[in-house]
Design goal:
Two copies of one chain form a homodimer.
Chain A: H1 3-30, H2 37-55, H3 58-67, H4 74-92, H5 95-117, H6 121-143, H7 148-153, H8 162-185, H9 198-212, E1 221-223, E2 229-230, E3 237-240, H10 248-266, H11 282-296, H12 300-314, H13 322-329, H14 343-362, H15 370-382, H16 408-427, H17 431-436, H18 441-450, H19 460-468, H20 475-488
Parallel strand pairs in A: 1-3
Antiparallel strand pairs in A: 2-3
Helix pairs in contact in A: 1-2, 1-3, 3-4, 5-6, 8-14, 8-20, 9-10, 10-11, 11-16, 12-13, 14-15, 14-16, 16-20
Chain lengths: 492, 492
């Protein structure tokens, strides 16, 4: 056994235990009896301690040092890179600080939920101040003299820099605002009407997931309040949700989560239960969910096929023909909530959070002033005013537990999806003909080949650059949005 | 922190992790995608290693020694007794032997399944020989000079001795055989006919579990191939099964598993996630499932109420009135399979396995001669011949992985249930009136008060003696069976 072998054996068990932790979360959100919450929290805490001890095991440092002299292949070097990065991060944060953060964030989420319920930002402000202070302390330890926000970002998108995101997002913003203005000034899109049987929606969800390439023998679909995908390798489960009065929530939640899940299912099995055996970053993960949901799933070609499926399943639902259905599936309208936003306004939500959270972290924005800053920015970018805190700065859970650096990966994912969709259309010229038949197989094969199979082998930026033949840029996303929504909502 | 506190903190985390392992098994049997089996096996193996390391942690020995001088209350002393017992057992078995057993039994179950499928005992005989040899070696290590079979038994029923069981079972056998002979010589019981909608059966299962006192806010019911109960404290789940053409499988599987689950749910919450926080032994556990299933659930009074529920749910199903229904729910007929056997013949199955496995362990019976010995004994006790090995000595999984000492706890559970039912009827004189209304609350309150709440506080024998006011004996069970089946199948 070489040091590398020892290290990987240790790591493999850690990854296996981490999969169990993921399964417990799935269980909690889908099947757990409601009276089990407190006991579960203790159980999950015990597993979490085991994982922490394994991840900070000082032998990892010794193995890493010894293994650095060994001759390894590309995958081996990439494994070491991931393990070294994680281990160094755990080494930089003092145990005492990590414990204080864990303790505070265990409670702060509840305080946020109460404040949101009461629409009372003032009640949440001191909690936010403490979370910001703790995370800044952690960020400073992680940054080791470098940029604090970049150090936070690195947790979700390894190697990403705020200055690059700022340039990308800055270039997107005027175009997004122009599209939003044009759309909200134009005639409203057609809307579906009627009742949509839940069982039928769930049957359709299973069918759609399979059409996308989701392997149901290595996964399953259940309902949950907030849709999510969970697990890696041969056990990747998704959840979705349904509304009684419209089918899009279920359809696009399912396709989005299927996109995430298919990514995990498509990684080279040789990487299973290793650091390379999971999606490489939040941004790349989001690109896989978004391209399935939006560039493919909300395309004119695919919605044409989907319309036929829905007519078969539900009969008449007030939409007259595939063009109207396409418009309904891509409608832009007023709304305050990020998770319900369309392709255009979603990014406006993220750009705003990116700027606000950087200001919180740098100290330019006092936590107590967040609501005012939020509302002013929202009015500028969206053109209508936030009515209450629960529909404004209290809507997302992220900041309540100090997840700074997480939000921008959503829009970065959309940017990556834009790049990949452009490359995909060049590689598969007959894509629309296939989508019009409800056939995603060529598209998914291309994504598997060029992105998904590689797991964590390349850095996120390398991966997208290799797949697209060019460095990632916001231009393809902007072109796509302008073409699509420019046609749906023509100016004047 | 005293040594006792340190020990209990360690133990509590171990118990929490053990609950997770139980949840993983539940997941595997109910919701796991079938393609996930190999990965799951690795995940469960990793958790198993963590548990093993925690349970053999040498600090436990130090804490136990230091804590033995501390002043503790009754519960504290009982905790130490449980922890000491488990730790000493792990210390006695050499690591190398434990590893050889784990390795062999990981494969032997598959070999058994193949042999059963092929009805080929000869193919399984050498596997059995090796399992017996390994378990004897382990038993000798555990027994430390004492009786090897008793050391095995102690794993499932702490403190039980084969010589006592032999006396109990020996006293039962002639009476059981006489009841079996009378029943099989008499007219057959009425049988149900018709189709029983699965959804309706599952609705009924939920209703029945609640009637028994199962708390659905701290549990759930799903379908599984083999019904089981899983978990302790606030997350105790059960599974059941259904047959299309008769309702008894679902009804009594549900009530049996609800009995197990209610025991776990009823233990004093102060013992949660400690050694006292689970059912005290296999035998006592089985007594709680059996009394709910049989002495209560198959009583004339309760089946009278149940008949009305089934008529409401399914309409006419070929049974004319509650007396016929009672007879149908308690029918004795030929059969070869333990898990499908009635209250009388079930114990004949166990008595036979108890004698055969002791002979295997002592060396009096060569593993290669098991089939012949089984078939001869079966013919003697049951009065009809075993047609093939899959319906004979290959029917149960237990011996394939060397679970010797496990079978007798099933009949011991029936014996305990007999004692408890007798005491219960004295404590609740109006029991039948309540059962006739579908009301089990007084019965379950008595069981909770006298048995269930105590968890592992007393030894199994102490617990039953305290509850019943007398040492356990087979006489109440035999009286109950003779009264019940003597009336259902009168001699001549």
């Amino acid at each position: 056994m070489t040091a590398y072998d020892d290290l990987m054996a240790h790591q493999r068990q850690t990854e296996a235990l981490a999969q169990i932790a993921g399964r417990l979360s799935w269980d909690r959100e889908t099947v757990m009896p409601r009276g089990a919450a407190a006991q579960r929290s203790e159980e999950a805490g015990a597993l979490s301690e085991v994982l922490h001890a394994r991840r900070t095991d000082p032998r990892i440092g010794d193995w890493l040092e010894a293994a650095s002299g060994e001759a390894l292949d590309q995958a081996g070097e990439a494994q070491l890179r991931h393990i070294r990065r994680s281990y160094e991060r755990t080494q930089r944060v003092p145990c005492d600080l990590a414990a204080r953060i864990a303790k505070f964030t265990a409670l702060s989420q509840g305080r946020w939920a109460e404040a949101r319920e009461a629409d009372d930002f003032a009640a949440f402000a001191p909690v936010l101040a403490e979370v910001v202070a703790l995370r800044r302390e952690e960020g400073a330890a992680l940054a080791d003299g470098g940029d604090i926000y970049d150090a936070m970002l690195d947790d979700y998108e390894p190697g990403a820099k705020a200055v690059d995101l700022e340039a990308m997002f800055g270039a997107l913003r005027p175009g997004l605002i122009a599209l939003r203005e044009a759309a909200l000034g134009a005639a409203a899109a057609p809307v579906v009407s009627g009742q949509f049987d839940v069982q039928t929606q769930m049957r359709l969800a299973r069918q759609l997931a399979k059409v996308c390439g989701y392997d149901m023998t290595r996964g399953r679909i259940d309902k949950a309040v907030h849709p999510f995908s969970s697990g890696s390798g041969d056990d990747v489960r998704i959840t979705t949700r349904t509304s009684d009065d419209e089918p899009f929530n279920c359809i696009y939640s399912t396709m989005h989560e299927a996109g995430h899940a298919i990514y995990e299912q498509s990684i080279d099995p040789a990487y299973a239960l290793t650091p390379l055996g999971a999606g490489v970053s939040m941004g790349v993960h989001e690109s896989q969910s978004r391209i399935v949901e939006n560039q493919l799933g909300r395309s004119r070609a695919f919605t044409g096929w989907l319309y036929g499926q829905l007519r078969d399943a539900f009969g008449d639902f007030g939409i007259d023909g595939p063009d109207a259905f396409y418009a309904a599936a891509n409608s832009l309208h007023r709304g305050y909530i990020r998770t319900e936003a369309d392709e255009v306004q979603y990014n406006l939500h993220i750009l705003m959070r990116f700027d606000l959270e950087r200001a919180l972290v740098s100290g330019d924005l006092a936590p107590g002033d967040l609501e005012e800053a939020w509302n002013a920015r929202f009015l500028r970018d969206f053109g209508y005013a936030v009515p209450r805190a629960s529909q404004g700065c209290l809507q997302d859970v992220h900041w309540s537990v100090g997840l700074f650096g997480y939000f921008p990966t959503y829009s970065l994912g959309n940017v990556y999806a834009g790049c990949l969709a452009e490359a995909l259309r060049q590689a598969v010229p007959t894509l629309d003909d296939q989508l019009a038949d409800g056939d995603m197989s060529a598209a998914m094969a291309w994504l598997r080949e060029n992105v998904q199979q590689h797991g964590g082998l390349y850095t996120p930026r390398e991966l997208i650059t290799r797949a697209c033949g060019a460095e990632p840029s916001e231009a393809p996303l902007m072109n796509y949005l302008e073409q699509k929504f420019g046609a749906l909502y023509p100016a004047g």
